[in-house]
Amino acid sequence: MDIFTFILEIIGTVAFASSGAMLAIEKKMDIFGVNILGATTAVGGGIMRDVILGVTPPTAFAQPVYILFAIITSTLLFAIVYTNPDIIHSKIKNKFYDKVMLWCDTVGLGIFTVVGIQTASRHVTDDNAFFFLFIGVLTGVGGGVIRDIMASETPYILVREVYASASIAGGIVCIVCRSTIGEAAGLVLGLIVTVVIRALAAHFHWNLLRIH
Amino acid sequence: MDIFTFILEIIGTVAFASSGAMLAIEKKMDIFGVNILGATTAVGGGIMRDVILGVTPPTAFAQPVYILFAIITSTLLFAIVYTNPDIIHSKIKNKFYDKVMLWCDTVGLGIFTVVGIQTASRHVTDDNAFFFLFIGVLTGVGGGVIRDIMASETPYILVREVYASASIAGGIVCIVCRSTIGEAAGLVLGLIVTVVIRALAAHFHWNLLRIH
Amino acid sequence: MDIFTFILEIIGTVAFASSGAMLAIEKKMDIFGVNILGATTAVGGGIMRDVILGVTPPTAFAQPVYILFAIITSTLLFAIVYTNPDIIHSKIKNKFYDKVMLWCDTVGLGIFTVVGIQTASRHVTDDNAFFFLFIGVLTGVGGGVIRDIMASETPYILVREVYASASIAGGIVCIVCRSTIGEAAGLVLGLIVTVVIRALAAHFHWNLLRIH
User: Fold this and answer.
1) Segment (H or E) for B66
2) What residue stretches are annotated with the Glycine transporter domain (chains A, B, C) (predicted)?
3) If exposure means fewest CB atoms within 10 Å of the residue's CB, which of A19, A139, B204, B210 is most exposed?
4) CA distance B212 to chain A (A)
C-alpha cells in the first residue's frame, strides 16, 4: 500500500514539476528559475499539507527524493525545449503545448488530492470526513496556487473551468470508497473521478455561473 | 466567554467572506472562484495564526463551521448580485459598493485582531504583550493579504490609509484592557478602536507620510 | 557561538529590512507600508524556517528584537529618503540606488542561508545534509520571495542572475565546513561564498541558460 502511494506521489511530482517548469520556460526564465518553479509546484502542496497537519519537518524536506525527481524532470524538459524551441513556437498552431500543460496539471491535481487524504488519515486518528476533504483539496490545489502566484498569474483555481470542484468531487469519492471498498480503491477511484471531471470540463469548456 | 468569542468569529468570518467574494465577483470569477476566494479570505488569517502558534490541525480545518459560513455567505452574495447585476454596475455612481466592501473588511480586521490575541493567550502561557500583539495583527490582516495576493492586487495593508496601524492600536487597547478590566472588555474595546480608527481614516482619507 | 550567530542575524535583519523598505519607497507606499514590507522581508524567511522545523511560536514572534530592528531600519531609511528625495530621483543616473539594493539583498541572502543551516542543526538531531541545505536556502530566499510577491514583482529568485544557486553553493560550503573545520568557520565561509558568487554574478551579468 505504501509503495503504491509512493509511486502515485512520484508520478504527481513529475506531473506538477512539468507544469511549473513549462510555465517558467514560457516566461523566459533561466534554467535555474525553471528548476525552482518546477520544484516549488511539485512539493508546495505537500509542504502546506504537512505544516497544517503538524508533520514537521515536512516529508518533502526530510526525504530529498521528491525534490530530486522534480529537478530531474525540470532539467530534462528544459533540455528538450532548448534543443527543440519549435515546441514552444508552434504552440499557437497545434495546441499541443496547452494540452501537455493541462494533462500535467490535471494528473497532479488528481494524485495529490487522494494522496493528501491518505496522508491526513495516517496522522489524524478521528474520522473527520470534512477535515480529510479540506486537506485533500489543499494538497491537490496548493502546488498550482504557489506556482501561479510566483509566476504573477491569477491562480488556476480561481479562473479555470471546474478546477477545485473536480478535486472536491474526487476527494468525496475517495473518502467514501476508503471506508467502504478499501484504501486502494479509494485512491484509484478518487483519482479517476478528479481527472475525468477536470479533463471533460477543459475539453467541453464547461463553465460555471459567472456575472458579466 | 467562549460563546461570545465564537459569535464574534462567525461575524468576522461572514464579513471577510463577503469582502473576498465581492472582489471575486468584481474580477468576473465564476461561482466557484467566488466561494474559494470568500472562504480563503475568511479562514486564511486564522490558519496562519494557528500554524504560527503550533495549533495543528488549525481550527478552520478541524471544525467545518467556519468554512461553511464562508461558503453560505459567498453563495448568497453571488446569488444577490447575479439577480441584481445593477448593484455592481451602478457602483461608480453611488459608491454603495465601495462602502460595503470597506465595512466588511474593517469589521473583519477588527474582530480577527482581538480574536487572534484571545487565541494566542489560550495557547501561550507566558504573558508576552509583544507576541500577543504580533499574533493579533497577523490574524487581522492575514486573510486580506491572502485575498489580495490571490486576486493579483497589491495588498490593502501596504497601500490603504491607516490599515495595519488601526489593527495595532486596537490590539494594544485589547491587551491593556484584558489585564486590567477583563477579557470581554478587551475584546469589545479593542474591536471598537480598530474599527473606528480604520473607518475614520477611510472616510477622511487620512494619509500617512509618503515620498513622491 | 550563539552571540556570533545573533550578531549575524541582526545584520541580516537590517539588510533585508532595507531591501524591503527601499522597494516600498520606490512603490510610493506610505511610512507604514514601508515598515510592514521592511519587517516582512526581514523576518519572513525565518518564520517560514521555524514553521517548517516545527519551532512554534517562531523566534521572530517570540523575541521582538528582530522586528524592532527591522522597524528602526525601515523608519530611518524612510526619514533619509524623505529629507533627501534626490537619492531616489538620481537613481537612473548613478546607479547608486540599485547597488545599495543589491548589496542589502545579497548580504541578507548570505547570512540567512548559513543561519538557517545553523538553526536546523539545533532542532533536528540526525545529520541530514540535504535537509539542512533545503532549510538554509529556504531561509535565505524566503524573505525576498515574500517581499516580491507582496509588492507584485516577479520573485528575484526566478529571474535574477545566479540567485538561489549562490545560496545553494554557500549552503554546501557551510555544511561541509561545519562537519570538518567547525561551526564558526562554516558560518563565515558559507556566507562569503554566497555573497561573492551573487555579487560577481550581478556585476558581470552572469546569465544561466535561457530559451528565447
Assistant:
1) helix B65-83
2) 7-80, 102-178
3) B204
4) 26
pLDDT of A91: 54
CB neighbour list of residue B107: distance below 8 Å, 6 or more residues apart: B11, B12, B15, B195
With beta carbons less than 8 A apart as the criterion, state whether B169 and B197 touch. Answer: yes
Q: CA B209, CA B165: separation in Å to the nearest integer?
A: 13
Residues of A in contact with B145 (CB under 8 A): none
Residue given cell 494619509 in the structure block:
B207
Q: Are B131 and B105 in contact (CB under 8 A)?
A: no
Of A52, A155, A158, the CB nearest to B57: A52
Q: pLDDT at residue B9 above 60? A: yes
Q: Is the dihedral of CA B175, B177, B182, B187 positive or negative?
A: negative
CA–CA distance, B30 with A109 (Å, rounded to integer): 20
Task: Classify residue A191 as left (phi > 0), alpha (psi -120 to 50) or beta.
Answer: alpha
Half-sphere exposure of B186 (CA within 13 A, CB side): 25
User: Taking CB atoms and an 8 Å limit, are B154 and C149 in contact across chains?
Assistant: no
Which amino acid is it at A16? F
Q: Are A162 and A206 in contact (CB under 8 A)?
A: yes
Closest partner residue to B82 (CB to CB) among A159, A163, A211 is A211
Interface test with C, best of A34, A35, A36 (most C CBs within 10 A): A36
Q: What CA–CA distance (Å, rounded) separates C166 from C172?
A: 10
Smallest CA–CA separation between C208 and chain A, in Å? 6
- State yes or no: pLDDT of B79 exceeds 90: yes
Q: Position of cell 439577480?
A: B83
Report d(CA A189, CA A201) in Å as an integer: 18
| Under 8 Å between Cβ of B67 and B60 | yes
Given an 8 Å threshold on Cβ–Cβ distance, is C131 in contact with A57?
yes
Q: Which residue has cell 562569503?
A: C192
Residue identified by cell 516549488 is A40
Per-residue pLDDT of chain C (212 residues; tens, 9 = 90+): 789 999 999 999 999 999 999 999 988 898 999 999 999 999 999 999 999 999 988 999 888 899 999 999 999 999 998 998 777 766 554 577 778 888 999 999 999 999 999 999 988 877 788 999 999 999 999 999 999 999 988 888 888 778 889 999 999 999 999 989 999 999 999 999 999 999 999 888 887 777 77
Distance CA C123, CA A182 (A): 38
Domain-wise residue ranges, chain C: 2-203
In contact, A88 and A81? CB cutoff 8 Å: yes
The answer to whether the Cβ–Cβ distance between A64 and C152 falls below 8 Å is no
C-alpha pair distances (Å), B199 with each of B100, B107, B162, B163, C164: 12, 10, 9, 10, 43
Question: Peptide bond preceding B57: is omega within 30 degrees of 0, i.e. cis?
Answer: yes
Q: Which helix (H) or strand (E) holds A194?
A: helix A183-203
Return the percentage of chain B with pLDDT > 70, whole number. Answer: 97
The strand ranges marked E within chain A are none
Give the pLDDT confidence of B89-125 residue by residue, as tens digits. 665 545 777 788 889 999 999 999 999 999 999 888 7
Nine-digit cell at C192?
Answer: 562569503
CB A45 within 8 A of CB A143: yes
Q: With CB atoms and an 8 Å threshold, state whether B37 touches A130.
A: no
Distance CA A104, CA C9 (A): 41
For A20, the closest chain C residue by CA position comes to C158
CB within 8 Å: A159 and B33: yes
CA distance B204 to A137: 43
